[in-house]
Specification:
59 residues, alpha+beta, two-stranded antiparallel ribbon, 14% strand, globular
């Protein structure tokens, strides 16, 4: 997600964007994003059509 530039709430990316960049199945990406959101690493913002994700914590 850092490579996509999803580090601010104004630059959030959808699960489709992450899936295209990572070249992984969409269900795997969606589960990983939900898991990271539950841990507090990424933030999920619900929008009209698709949810957006951006990184909150960096190491």
């Amino acid at each position: 997600m850092e490579e996509l530039g999803a580090t601010k709430d104004t630059q959030m990316k959808t699960a489709d964007d992450v899936q295209k960049k990572s070249n992984r199945p969409k269900s795997l990406v969606a589960n990983a994003l939900v898991s990271l959101a539950n841990k507090g690493v990424v933030k999920r913002v619900v929008r009209e059509k698709a949810a957006g994700y951006f990184i909150v914590k960096t190491e």
